[in-house]
Design brief:
This protein is α+β, with helices and mostly antiparallel strands. The strands form 4 sheets. Strands 1, 8, 9, 12, 13, 14, 18 and 19 form an 8-stranded antiparallel β-sheet that branches. The chain has a 7-stranded antiparallel β-sheet with strand order 7-4-3-11-10-2-20, covered by helices on one side. Helix 3 runs parallel beside helix 5. It starts with a helix and ends with a strand. It binds 6-diazenyl-5-OXO-L-norleucine (DON). The site of 6-diazenyl-5-OXO-L-norleucine has 13 residues, from loops. 6-diazenyl-5-OXO-L-norleucine binds next to loops.
Amino acid sequence: MKNRALAITLVAAALACRVPAVRPPNPDGPAVAARSAPLFPAGWLYPPGARAAFAPHGMVSSNEPLATAAGVEIMRSGGNAVDAAVAVGFALAVTYPEAGNIGGGGYMVIRMSDGRTAALDYREVAPLAATRDMYLDSAGRMTDRSIVGHLASGVPGSVAGLVAAQRRFGRLALAEVMAPAIRLAEEGVVVDSALGRSLARDAPLISRFEGGALFAPGGAPLAPGARLVQRDLARTLREIASRGADGFYRGWVADSLVAEIRRGGGIVSHEDLRRYRPVWRDVLRSTYRGFTLLTMPPSSSGGVTVTETLNILETVPALPPFGSAEYYHVLASAYQRAFIDRNEKLGDPAFVRVPIATLTSKEYARKVAQTIAAGRATPTAVLETKLRTLREGDETTHYSVVDSLGNAVATTTTLNGLPGSGVWVRGAGFFLNNEMDDFATQPGMPNMFGLVQGEANAIQPGKRMLSAMSPTIVLDPAGELLLVVGARGGPRIITTTSQIVVNIIDHRMTLADAMSAPRVHHQALPDSLRHERNAIDPAVADSLRAMGYGLSQGAAAGQAHAVMRVRGGWEGFVDPRASGAASGY
Ligand code: DON
């Protein structure tokens, strides 16, 4: 304990000459009551009591062990949490090609230990040549061109975002931070079982395009044990390391990207790449039972929908016990209502007026909560009309990083589907996103995730497509960092992230239990309460049916990667549904 305290002091002293002096987080741990052991239903897959990784100084939790190690390496060599997060981001582009790719986009929420906060929107935008109905056929029917192939891509934002975050908050040179990724691409990585599974699953799509030769030579996906060397990607990363974002958006990488897009009849142009800019936004700040939440504002719907959900839940003074029918009723009702607002009212604030203040206000939540009937589900169709009259005047990967001073980064990045549109940029070595499907490609009709969205999210050139990504940072009632969390899983990102927060704050679970607990999902339409297998006790399921819920078993959970403060340091945990590693120093 004494050594640990000394080490923290030494690291803090070493850093003090380069950054404003800040106090490391309280070593006595967060200002929250003791954790308690949850009861999960019989037959539930992930038992309570799993052990999280612990480290006294810094912690990374990501979807892939070598990428996690890259983040730890950067912190050990003097980088802060933002340097480490950017190192993880570029490393994932090498080791986790299905989602951690530079051909996509994402969001980052940052909280520095001196109290500064920032939200970075590096979401893709619609190309300048995009049109509202570009994915409909001549009979007005939706096609799959927003999902597969060269037309499906928005203008990538990841490189501009990572570079901007590192420049504003990092302490090291970009080239230092990118070194682990370049090394992994050049020297190669051994395909592990997670990568092997993902390549086996995606080989049919990958093989339709240029990535087939690398990832599935002769049609056979690389199997565990094979070495994956990515020379083209290494060259691209070197170009970015030496020229910053220009190395991607101008020059030979941009030429390769545009050439590939043109070859397949897509529309992303040099002009689109030249114009792309990430946007710094104010974090969306809210409170939940005395804790502070820092989340992502639009163009992601994540922060607004998580906030509205928690505000509705907060109107219930003490939530019913975890796993009870009453608990799932109030949880599902909150999600259903927050998703109705999400699906209709949210979009890129540069193009549509988004009523953020209203949707995230406690007063609005109280009114919405009044539409929840005791012991009875309300059909979405009925609620849609009710919420309208309440209007007042107005494949993805998440990683969480914390350093020894308590600087924290939550970032979620995506290609959308796995692995994006399937299109791979020859010569430059990366997959392109199929993020255009996150627009309402035909308002009122479901997208890839079954989300039915409205005009606010219709396609317009230069517009960001609405996202569910919800990178979130939670401060304890004393204002100190408690939790860094987020997930992948389309709309289930919102329900996954908020259930972990509720499990920790209301149900007082440990981080591992909060992430292992069974999850449910409601997104308004389809109007059903989705749950994981064996997630709900059969008697509880009967009660929910009697309340009028249509229950459906299926993909109800996203996959989260989180870090939480505990006495003496940090715990990191990987969702048991996900691949990856949490590790620190
Ligand atoms: O931005 C969004 O909401 C989606 N493109 C996220 C997709 C996703 O999480 C897929 N991963 N499993």
